[in-house]
Amino acid sequence: MAGFSSSLGAAAGDAELARLLAAEQQKAQLQLKVHGFTELCWDKCVEKPSSRFDSRTEACLQSCVERFVDTTLAVTGRFAQMVQKGGH
Amino acid sequence: MDDFSGGPIGGKVDSGMIMEQVKLQIAVANAQELLQRMTDKCFRKCVGKPGSSLDNSEQKCIAMCMDRYMDAWNTVSRTYNSRLQRERAQM
């Protein structure tokens, strides 16, 4: 997605505009993450498209998101340790 | 895509109009992402060996699949946003 850089607002000398643009860009990046998670978790949780989601699929999707965030935290945490211990 | 028309930059910038344009463009891009990924997933789920046209069962499957995909998107969005709030609350 396009990066609506705040330099546009800064060039116009409008700090408020720059702030608003940065906020929209952050929202857009969040949306993109949701798209990615949905793709991933769809593959893990949905087999046959049915006429309605059962509670098991719903729960699976929620767990999927939570576990992915946990994984991200675990990976970045451990990686930081590895780097600290000495140049991997 | 960058059409911020409606006033000279460098003078008084109409930031309201710019923000409207920006939000619109983001919404359009977001819809395109959704459509592209939804189409991919539903093609994989619903279309087996490609025939000379989409038969009735394939079309029905695609329609259901779209509904389910959007349900999934909403669930994921809700879950992710509340997780973010929980993480922020701990910081």
From TrEMBL, chain A:
It is a peripheral membrane protein. GO terms for cellular component: mitochondrial inner membrane. Mitochondrial intermembrane chaperone that participates in the import and insertion of some multi-pass transmembrane proteins into the mitochondrial inner membrane. Also required for the transfer of beta-barrel precursors from the TOM complex to the sorting and assembly machinery (SAM complex) of the outer membrane. Acts as a chaperone-like protein that protects the hydrophobic precursors from aggregation and guide them through the mitochondrial intermembrane space. Its main location: mitochondrion. GO terms for biological process: protein transport. The lineage of its organism: Eukaryota, Metazoa, Chordata, Craniata, Vertebrata. It is found in: Mitochondrion inner membrane. The twin CX3C motif contains 4 conserved Cys residues that form 2 disulfide bonds in the mitochondrial intermembrane space. This is Mitochondrial import inner membrane translocase subunit. It comes from Scyliorhinus torazame (Cloudy catshark). It comes from the Eukaryota. Belongs to the small Tim family. Heterohexamer.
Automatic annotation (TrEMBL), chain B:
Keywords: Chaperone, Disulfide bond, Membrane, Metal-binding, Mitochondrion, Mitochondrion inner membrane, Protein transport, Translocation, Transport, Zinc. Its main location: mitochondrion. It is a peripheral membrane protein. One of its GO terms (biological process) is protein transport. Residues 21-81 form the Tim10-like domain. The keyword Ion transport does not apply. It is found in: Mitochondrion inner membrane. Mitochondrial intermembrane chaperone that participates in the import and insertion of some multi-pass transmembrane proteins into the mitochondrial inner membrane. Also required for the transfer of beta-barrel precursors from the TOM complex to the sorting and assembly machinery (SAM complex) of the outer membrane. Acts as a chaperone-like protein that protects the hydrophobic precursors from aggregation and guide them through the mitochondrial intermembrane space. Belongs to the small Tim family. Heterohexamer; composed of 3 copies of TIMM8 (TIMM8A or TIMM8B) and 3 copies of TIMM13, named soluble 70 kDa complex. Associates with the TIM22 complex, whose core is composed of TIMM22. The twin CX3C motif contains 4 conserved Cys residues that form 2 disulfide bonds in the mitochondrial intermembrane space. This is Mitochondrial import inner membrane translocase subunit. The lineage of its organism: Eukaryota, Metazoa, Chordata, Craniata, Vertebrata.
